[in-house]
Amino acid sequence: MTAIGQNPLLTIETEYGQSIWMDNLSRDLLESGELAKLIVSRGVLGITSNPAIFEKAIVGNAIYDTEIVAGIKAGKSLNDIYESLIFTDIRHACDVLLPVYEQTKGIDGYVSIEVPPTIATDTASTISEARRYHAAIHRPNVMIKIPGTPEGLPAVEQMISEGISINVTLLFSVESYVETAWAYIRGLETRAAKGEEISNISSVASFFLSRIDTNIDSKLDNLIKQTTDTSKTEKIAALKGKIAIANAKVAYQEYKKIIATERWQQLATKGARVQRLLWASTGTKDPSYSDVMYVDGLVGNDTVNTLPPSTIEACADHCDPANRIEAGVDEAYRLVASLKDSDVNIDLDAVMDELLIDGIDKFVKPFDSLMKSLDGKVKALTPV
């Protein structure tokens, strides 16, 4: 339990070994000094960004106009102007978080930037863009985000072998997490075999939560509408809002198995850092659920929780931290298995495949929308 007056976010970090990162970035946040304040007042130890976040930050915000005009005068392409805007913000955020990076010896203090979502199924392009982004931003605490698609994981392995820290995003299934963990390990092994340093590389595996419950709850609601059997209805309803956290707990058990293997232990003796599970998509979508359910339910050692600003404030107000990632593990396995019950019959693998496709689309659409809006702004700001 958190002591009276103590910030639950800080308790999560100091007592339970989980890092709080923020899922938000904008120039206003940086130039106002708000990010620096959040590091102190809310214990924010890292930043994650994505195309949807950049769309919200840039579209309709005059704070970027001066740099856009400079790009126009320099004859930059639309894509070059876009990258100048986001790279500037990422570099600034990296600089603000550099003291965290140094104090934690490279465990935290990262700022994540995603390669273009339009190349999520193109391994060669992902590798090329990850290298380019990393070199262009040129900060020790930048973390390149690569989607955990079948085509993305070879890129993850390659980037790790080249010494680039990676945030593997859009993970939904336990199987995809396990594949991600081994891609990280293989990358480290390749690097270590060449006699190169591995103690300065970090990675997180971003495991998405609320989207799982939203998808499965919708299917459960449809099943409830189709039955008049009260006992069946109660059994089905009991699963609502439970699967995402259960699935994450199962993934954490796989994490524990992986770091107990001899292969991992050999890397650990050479200074390798664990690839932490990062809980993403943690803003509660269903208003009938607690607004901090994806925080309280998954507090645990060697993990990260990346929260949108509203969830950070909600947690600071009323989170109730406890080491729940290790609580009710048997029940978590039972909940996941119960989807196969004849009265439920939800194919979890199919749900995860659907969510991955939808997840890529949720990044492609705002990226396309941002580029269109930016194109309109460039035309409006171009001297006649």
What does this structure look like?
By secondary structure, the chain is an alpha/beta fold. The protein has a single domain (about 10-210, about 270-325, about 350-380), classed as Alpha-Beta Barrel (TIM Barrel). Helix content is about 55%, strand content about 10%. The chain is built from 17 helices and eight strands. An eight-stranded parallel β-barrel has the order 1-2-3-4-5-6-7-8, surrounded by ten helices. The longest helix is centred in the C-terminal third of the chain and has 34 residues, at about 350-380. The protein is globular, with a radius of gyration of 21 Å.
Write the layout of secondary structure elements.
Blueprint: H1 8-16, E1 18-23, H2 27-31, H3 34-41, E2 44-48, H4 51-58, H5 65-73, H6 78-103, E3 111-114, H7 123-137, E4 142-147, H8 152-161, E5 166-171, H9 174-193, E6 203-208, H10 210-226, H11 230-237, H12 243-259, H13 262-268, E7 276-280, H14 293-296, E8 303-307, H15 309-318, H16 329-337, H17 348-381
Parallel strand pairs: 1-2, 1-8, 2-3, 3-4, 4-5, 5-6, 6-7, 7-8
Helix pairs in contact: 4-17, 5-6, 7-8, 8-9, 9-12, 10-11, 12-16
Keywords:
single chain, 384 residues, alpha/beta, TIM Barrel, eight-stranded parallel β-barrel, globular
